[in-house]
UniProtKB/TrEMBL annotation:
EAL domain location: 437-676
Pfam families hit by this protein: DAHL, EAL, GGDEF
Native source organism of the sequence: Caminibacter mediatlanticus TB-2
Name of the protein in question: EAL domain-containing protein
InterPro entries, per the entry: Cyclic-di-GMP_PDE-like, DAHL, EAL_dom, EAL_sf, GGDEF_dom, Nucleotide_cyclase, Rev_trsase/Diguanyl_cyclase
Amino acid sequence: MKIRSLSLKIWAIIITGVLVIFLIIGFSFFAKSYYKNSSDILNNLILLKNYNNKLKYQVLYSNLFLYSNNDNIAKIIHHIRKLNKKIDKNVFFKKFYKNVYEKFKAYENEVFNVENDIFEYLRYNQPLKNSLMYLLDSIDIAKFDKNDYKTVLHTISLILLYKNSLDDDFIKNIDLKKIEKFKNSNDIYEQAFYRNLKVYLKFLPKQRFYLNRIINSNLNEKIDNTITAFRYKLSKNLKIFEMLSYLLVSFIIIILSLLIIYIVRLDDKIKTITYLLEYDSLTGLKNRFSFKKDIKKYNSPIVVIFNIDKFKNINDYFGSNIGDKVLKEVGLFIEKYFKNKKIKGGVYRVGADDFAFIFENVDINDIKSIVKDLIEQIEIKDFKINETIFNISMSAGISKKFPYLENADIALKNIKKDIKDKFIVYDNKMNKDVFLNIKKSKEIKEAIDNYKIIPYYQPIFDKEGNICKYEVLCRVKVKDEIKSIYPYLEILKENKLYHRVTQIIIKEAFNKLYSNKNLELSINLSVEDILNKEILNLINQCFLIKKDISKRVTFEILESEIENYNEVNTFIKVLKQKGVKFAIDDFGSGYSNFNRILNLDIDYLKIDGSIIKDILYSKNSKLILETIINFSKKADKVTIAEFVENKEIYDEVKKMGIDCFQGYYLAKPSQNLEGK
């Protein structure tokens, strides 16, 4: 199947399928990316929370232990800064979690504040540590007396209790008055104890202030708010994704359902199309397409074509509906015949009223017997269609040579020429007629196209030997030879060119009438011409040019062709009113019905040439001619004898009472008018 020939439905299915695939892939990539980015951000936020806790822990640790390392605090702050920067630059976070991002920015600001507090905390914490270490060492190196020693131990104990408990009451219980005396002591260690204690008590409130700010900062609260908001937004979006997934799945199910329904329907249509491609819808038999396909399966086939004789008459008289029923009944009869005889092969309807059967491995003489028997069976059967009985006559052509169907058809056409045979086997000699017809077809078409259809005129004489009119005859110029039109008549009808020749002759004849005011012409018309609208229009137009010309025109109608009496009678009546005369040509050729001829209101009876030619030797011809002459005189018709070939015939028919004469003895047809 070509791409352009694809139906819109198939294109719609393909496009819809592609869109669905892209939609699924796109949705899958987006959902996967969304989930991964969201997970990364959430994990980083949770990690930030952990770092916050660690940071506070390290700050407390540095407060409790004199020899703690601040590097851990610096590392944690570094990690927090790095994570904050990573999250802050995340475009996905800003785009899809706009509100959460604002909470995160509030957290970042809190981190900045806590970092400053830690810096301040460490700035005061380190001197406190140094002072405390000296206060502890002074117990061993200073030479306190017994009472002072107790005071020093008590003071250091309160400091340590405060340091470990962060209870301000311990600091308040330090008695500075007892320590003041060390300020001016001679012992430099006691003086140092005094100064370190003063430093410690001086920096302690500030260190405590920043420590409290750090410990009580909103870091965790803000990161928790961020995480909670993020999880809420993520959960909300995941629900949207879930709904979209359901919608997508539903959409896919609907599309798949539609596709399945359409595929099922398409399959039914394909089966129907396949059936119509291979079978004849009228008879249910296999058709010509199947024949051409099946014949290739046979090794040595013999093909028979059965044709219903004059089936056209059934269609013309009873209508195509009845004709179709006849075809169906005949087709079924042929199929049933071969089935009952258990003859292998197939019955095909290969033409309007043509049925074919393929034999294989059957002797040709047996096939002839089968064909003969089948035709006899059909011809004795009454086919009853709508209460009307039809008796069918059938002919058959047989071929055992390739191309089987065409050769069988040639054999069939040869039978139609000679109706005494009911069937015939194809012979190579039959092709000669085919080639001859092809040659004639080419010649007549070239003659029409190149203005080589030529009118000839043969005079018709009265009893006194005067020319009363001329019959217009048609000749064809083939190369340099002038030929009669009669060998080409069947070809003209088969090729739908007959009316073009008639039109040429009518135009030439009327042109001759226009230029010769005393000329009378007799022009031949077939019944087909009379029933043709173009011919009728041409004749009417010719009469309109010169109205009085109609009285110099006689139309000759071939008697044997008159079957549509009503149409012919109407044509004659209309033109008789204009003064046109009519003649029946070849009257007495065996089809004459005197009563019907009289009803046609004709003026001349041109007696068939076969009667005139034998008038000197045949009693029957003489008797027929006498009857026609008597009939004509009583009916007031003028008789014309054709084929007057010699003086003896002329004298005889003149003596019998013929009115007018035409033949080679008197004058041959000529392209020029005699005496004109």
